[in-house]
Amino acid sequence: MQRFTSHRRRFVIAAAVALSAVGMIGVTGVPSASATVPPAPGGVGVVCTDGPTFNLETAKDYITLPDGNTAYMYGYKIAGGHFQHPSPVLCVNQNQQVTITLKNTLSRAVSIMFPGQHDVMANGLPANPEVDGGGVVSSLTNSVAPGGTITYSFVADHPGTFLYESGTDGDVQVRMGLFGALIVRPAGHADYVYGTADSQFTTTDNSRPGGAYNDEDFLVLLSEIDPYLNQAIEKQDAGGTSNYNLDNYHPRYWLVNGRGFPDSIADNGASWLPNQPYGALAEVRPQTFSSPNVPGGVHQYGGVARYLNVGTETYPFHPHGNNGRVVGRDGQPVVGPTGQDLSYEKFAIDIGPGQTYDVLFSWHDAENYSEANPVPVVVPQVANQVFGMFYSGSPYLGVNGAQPPGNQSLNQCGEYYIISHNHALYQITSWGVNMTGPITYMRIDPAHTSPAKPGCP
């Protein structure tokens, strides 16, 4: 489905230019001219790199930050492909034998650790921590030296959302970007988070062409950057020295899916973010129909948000006006000892370091307001209203109302927008520039537009 890409792109470029006028506070490298990545599929939602066999390489390059700075980063990439941040979302099915071969192109030993997976093998033997000559653990799992290759394998025996990340010098390498998301889909149920009936997020509406409705799977991968650490590693990789002290680690940037606002709401594969291919906008339609697959016949949820925290602090993510139902934590369904449903409704989702949450959400038109069933208040005249850039000019879903002369709206279809952001407010900044961190929106599209409008459902 065509979305509001062109309008959103103009908005994001204008905002990025305005933010860059704040000035270059940090001292970082210049992005390489070769940092070009073929765009990921447009639109929104999770972009999977499908397995179960993956050939990865380590890589280094630069990303763009919302205040106009750049940051030198590490990452895993598909072998022969291009650098990206965060690393690819690896998607497999339950009970598959997963094989991940890693070639190390960096100048330091690296590894991949798979929290939540059982019986991980490294080059055919059980993966184990490594110790140096003094008996001190040097890596939490088997590492590979510069120029070398290592193969990890495991059976994805349970569904859920997981991190994968470096187990070697994690205080540096994970913070430098050696991390990504691993999604294990339940066997035979690609439209469920787990195998449990309460975890279905894909629904069907036979009144729509093809029956498709709200097949929405979204990534909320939260991370942080201390640019002084990145600068120190860049100097070391260039053969220099640095006196950076990890005891002084202090993030100045916080990102969602490797981007800050307003870039976070741009489509996947936005052309001006060649190394940051994943957007964070969620897009759903109203859930008001019956479903035979859900007790009571009414399907309650239209999407799943997969929250992952790779940072060092708890991130309280805060979707305005929209509770979600937590159906899984750390790759485990929220069920009792005999399988009873213990999922629970929650507003802000507090994700601790290294944690993952699976949260179902939807939007319901509870009052069913429309021009035929108007809101029970007097709507002020246009001259007495303040119009936001996403407002359609009408309080009714699917209606584009009158706008003041010269007003530029990014609203296409009379859709609604609900902001979501990290609620530790100092974390929605870029070195003090407000409203530039882990902020995104949920876009609620009308179920149908009549007559049809370009770019609308």
Distance between the termini: 7 Å
- What is the β-strand count? 28
Name the structural class. mainly beta
Instruction: Please estimate the helix content.
Output: under 10%
Mean pLDDT: 85
Q: How would you describe the shape?
A: globular
The largest sheet, given as strand count, sense and whether it forms a barrel, is: 7 strands, mixed
Low-confidence stretches: 1-40, 204-214, 289-295
Radius of gyration: 23 Å
Helix segment tally: 3
Structure description:
The protein is mainly beta and about 450 residues long. It is built from three helices and 28 strands. Strands 15, 16, 18, 20, 21, 22 and 24 form a seven-stranded mixed beta sheet that branches. Strands 3-2-5-10-6-7 form a six-stranded mixed beta sheet. Strands 17-28-25-19-23 form a five-stranded mixed beta sheet, with no helix packed on it. The longest helix has 16 residues, at about 5-20. The radius of gyration is 23 Å and the shape is globular. The N and C termini lie close together (about 5 Å).
Which tags fit this structure?
457 residues; mainly beta; seven-stranded mixed β-sheet; six-stranded mixed β-sheet; 3 helices; disordered N terminus
What's the gist of this structure?
It is built from 3 helices and 28 strands.
How is the secondary structure organized here?
Layout: H1 5-20, E1 48-50, E2 53-64, E3 70-78, E4 89-93, E5 97-103, E6 121-122, E7 125-126, E8 130-131, E9 137-139, E10 149-155, E11 160-165, H2 170-173, E12 179-185, E13 203-204, E14 212-213, E15 217-225, H3 227-237, E16 253-256, E17 282-284, E18 303-309, E19 315-319, E20 324-329, E21 332-333, E22 344-346, E23 349-351, E24 356-361, E25 416-422, E26 429-430, E27 433-434, E28 439-444
Parallel strand pairs: 1-4, 2-5, 4-12, 15-18, 17-28
Antiparallel strand pairs: 2-3, 5-10, 6-7, 6-10, 8-9, 11-12, 13-14, 15-16, 18-24, 19-23, 19-25, 20-21, 20-22, 20-24, 25-28, 26-27
